[in-house]
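$ fold --in a.seq
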Amino acid sequence: MCTCFTDSFRIRHIINSFNPSGFINKQDMGFMGFVTVINNVLAGKIHYSQTIVKALNQKTVNNIRLDKYDILILKELANGSKMKDLLGLVHLSKSAIDKRKRLLKRKFGIEGNSDRDLVLAAKVKGFI
């Protein structure tokens, strides 16, 4: 996997979601370095570039953990789904969805009731 992101939240999310054998930042290497990484991964070795390792080693103040329902709610909100749509898609009660949205807003530091702000914060952190 190759990325230009350096944000530790996003890097951790990608690793937790896809568990890549090779993960590099574009700025870490030139063409020959890229070829070396591909050869290493094909040989069964794990390779993370310096920027990826640095991002993983950063201590995060707000280590945000989301489960599959949280991610699904965020994705559907990003797609413009309303509560009536969420009820059919997420398979949770209205009160459970409302509670999860409140907790998500708290995790992302969102004040108020804006779903739009929640979606924007989730995008910035790389969750959607």
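$ fold --in b.seq
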Amino acid sequence: MGTFRAHDGTELAYHLMGEGEPLICLPGGPMRASAYYGDLGGLSGHRQLVLLDLRGTGASAVPADPESYRCDRQVGDVEALRAHIGLEQVNLLAHSAGGNLALLYAARHPERIRRLALITPNAWALEMQATAEERLAAARLRSGEPWFEAAYTAFEAALSGQEPKDSFAPFFYGSWDAAAEAHAATDLEQVNREAAARFGGPGAYDPPAARAALRALEAPVLVLAGELDGAPRPDRAGGPAALFPAGECVVQSGGGHFPWLDDPQWYVRTVARFLPL
């Protein structure tokens, strides 16, 4: 594990895994510790993963100012990490809500991006996020599963702001098996709930400005979506991909929100092919 200081003095941690060309990995959640990434399905066998624990998560310190959990305020943390590991340009991978941090970083520091991989990103920063109905429509694709009824009722409740009585975690995985259950069980202990509530708070995003800046990004961008995922649906993921001059969208057949778990070989092959050697 390595550490570095953010601009406000907060000590942040990152974890190195594998060897080769560094790949900075920003976790989702929002505000989930990077441990849930594992080795990204074996991607560490092809690149050196630099797994950042966002402030207040994992081994990173809790900041003095809770407002610094806001997504736009954390752009400086990513830039501080880049400088700390001594890279002029970075290959950047971000998952889910972490995609918003990656998008804001790319908008503010386009010259620092070599390649950008957005894995099942829910793009609030671009005002291209999934709607509740899109998420429920994706959930209905699983209507033949034995767990569907209870999970769907719970998902409806959660999306309407009510307290669900059952878990709706199965909808986030292409296959609800023992590995998926174990992965989902770590969510509560890995997410900083206070930080998550502040991540997209007032002022965090300026979608028109972000879209305008990112239309000029010259670096190649990969948006990876899961066929069964609802945040985003594959057609919704095409929106962010089309924004970039060199953007592409690929869809994992049978995949959910964590594609490195659903089909590790396909995931590693797809991402490794996109990234430079």
